[in-house]
């Protein structure tokens, strides 16, 4: 049994727009994974798509279930917080691991460290 016929037309249109927009943003981010050249560019596009696209889908879900249940539904806010927090952290961890690997392998395409190790200052005496 589905509750979709009980959803008013204005809410159904709003939910449909939010879900389709969120899915489109996620798809664009996934296409960036396929289209971009380097690992560092590839890892950036899906994280933006995942965060923004999931946000649109979750807002659509909040509207749908809030209208159907006649009360504000908060479950999706918790999901959005976890995705918003974990996606950038995952991006940083993957990027730092790849950067470390590329520097150890002395890949010429990787920039040098921002803090190059230097010799300690000489004794002024």
What layout of secondary structure does this protein have?
Layout: H1 9-35, H2 39-69, H3 75-104
Helix pairs in contact: 1-2, 2-3
Pfam families: PhaG_MnhG_YufB (PF03334)
GO molecular function: sodium:proton antiporter activity
Keywords: Membrane, Transmembrane, Transmembrane helix
Q: Which characteristics define this entry?
A:
70% helix; 0% strand; elongated; 3 helices; mainly alpha; transmembrane; 125 residues; membrane
Please tell me about this protein's structure:
The protein contains three helices and no strands. The protein is mainly alpha-helical and 125 residues long. It has one domain. α1 packs antiparallel against α2 and α2 packs antiparallel against α3. The longest helix is centred in the middle third of the chain and has 31 residues. It starts with 8 loop residues before the first helix and ends in a 21-residue tail after the last helix. GO terms for molecular function: sodium:proton antiporter activity. This is Potassium:proton antiporter. InterPro entries: PhaG_MnhG_YufB. Keywords: Membrane, Transmembrane, Transmembrane helix.
Question: Short summary of the structure?
Answer:
This protein has helices spanning 9-35, 39-69, 75-104.
SS-derived structural category: mainly alpha
Please state roughly what percent of the residues sit in beta strands, choosing from under 5%, 5-15%, 15-25%, 25-35%, 35-45% or over 45%.
under 5%
Tell me about the largest β-sheet: none
Radius of gyration: 23 Å
